[in-house]
Design goal:
Helix content of chain A: under 10%
Low-confidence stretches of chain A: 1-6
Shape of chain B: globular
Strand order of the largest sheet of chain A: 2-5-6-8-9-10-12-13
Radius of gyration of chain A: 17 Å
Helix content of chain B: 40-55%
Low-confidence stretches of chain B: 187-193
Number of strands of chain A: 13
Largest sheet of chain B: 6 strands, parallel
Largest interface: A-B, 18 and 19 residues
Mean pLDDT of chain A: 94
Oligomer: heterodimer
Number of strands of chain B: 6
Strand content of chain B: 5-15%
């Protein structure tokens, strides 16, 4: 039988270790799934609240022209909306599982989102500090955020799915 | 606010260029500076071998004109269900180098004229798609002036007030977008730093 832990996140302030963390997205395109990441991001857990952000200009894909197109108004519009952000409203923990209700803002549009994932308890790291892990994912409808570009297949079906999975693998280090 | 107007038709008595001139008056009535770009005919076929720091003079000229404008207003005819070749060729030059091209984040709007009944709607859709792919900020709104031979007076002015009103709405949307882009310039710097 599972129990809901009332102390859902470790107390104190925990800052993301950017080297050992990643934020990315996956979206079905044509016959497979396309993946991308953001190299410049931030995340912090403080007083039981998770806040995260990623710089649109840091999007990493395997083609330079695509990276540029993703920053344009057809997609994220980095000029007008340089960041994607997330703020948690409520976090529920059940053993290693977490469910986070919060708000995601993409391209200036804010939508509620339910994020699910796994949490690990704090451990002592080799650098004299303390850290814990969060592995999170959620699915958003990109069309709701105004990210609506598409390209029809010869069948007439859209090549790019509206459902986008956003993932975050975070190691958070305790701040003094 | 400086607006550059580009007609996709090279023809001397082009209905599209007539509409562009009419639109220019509407832009100026809104307090914007408006200039029609003449010179698409001088732009050579796109060739990456010649797309160097020493690009053809006609290319450098239109790149500078677009870069200096706060917004670009296109009027296009429809050739074989799509964009005229000279206009597409111009956009191919303007799109390079891709990451820093002068149309990137540039507010743009598209309307069109055709002698047929559909008002170049396919060309307009294709032009919006191409401009979006290049990275321009494509303003919503479309004006399709069909049956062009019946829509202009002897001075090349639109004869129907409702069509002029539609053009005016697209112009207002473009100017609002350009104004918004100017105020978000600090965000642009942050995004590219």
């Amino acid at each position: 039988m599972s129990t809901v832990d009332t102390q859902v996140l470790p107390t104190g302030t925990w800052q993301v270790d950017k080297v050992h963390s990643s934020i990315g997205f996956a979206v079905d395109y044509m016959a497979g799934t396309f993946h991308g990441t953001f190299s410049d991001f931030d995340a912090i857990v403080a007083d039981g609240v998770l806040n995260g952000s990623a710089k649109v200009a840091s999007v990493q894909v395997k083609d330079e022209n695509l990276a540029t197109h993703l920053q344009s108004p057809d997609f994220f519009d980095a000029q007008a909306h340089p960041e994607l952000t997330f703020t948690s409203n409520a976090i529920n923990r059940d053993c290693d599982h977490v469910t986070i209700d919060g708000e995601i803002t993409i391209k200036g549009h804010t939508e509620t989102a339910e994020i699910t994932g796994e949490i690990s308890d704090p451990i002592a790291d080799p650098y004299g500090g303390e850290r814990f892990g969060l592995t999170l994912q959620t699915v958003v409808d990109r069309d709701k955020f105004g990210v609506s570009w598409n390209n029809p297949l010869p069948s007439g079906e859209p090549a790019l799915s509206n459902e986008v999975t956003i993932t975050a693998e975070l190691q958070l280090s305790k701040q003094a | 606010m400086r607006v550059l107007g580009i007609s996709g038709s090279l023809r001397r008595d082009s209905y599209n260029t007539s509409l562009l001139r009419h639109a220019g008056d509407l832009f100026e009535a809104e307090g914007a500076e408006f200039e029609i770009y003449h010179g698409l005919r001088d732009i050579p076929p796109y060739d990456e071998d010649y797309d160097t720091e020493d690009a053809p003079e006609a290319v450098s000229r239109i790149r500078a004109a677009v870069r200096d404008a706060d917004a670009v207003f296109f009027v296009t005819p429809e050739y074989n269900s799509s964009i005229p070749g000279a206009l597409k060729n111009t956009l191919d030059w303007l799109s390079r180098p891709f990451a820093t091209n002068p149309l990137r984040y540039k507010p743009v709007a598209v309307i069109g004229v055709s002698s047929g009944m559909f008002g170049a709607v396919w060309a307009q859709a294709d032009l919006r798609k191409v401009l979006g792919a290049i990275g321009a900020r494509v303003t919503e709104g479309e004006v399709a002036v069909g049956n062009a031979g019946e829509r202009f007076d002897e001075n090349g002015r639109l004869t129907e007030p409702n069509l002029e009103q539609e053009v005016h709405e697209v112009i207002a949307a473009l100017l609002a977008e350009a104004q918004s882009a100017q105020t978000s310039q600090p965000a642009a710097n942050a995004a590219t730093s």
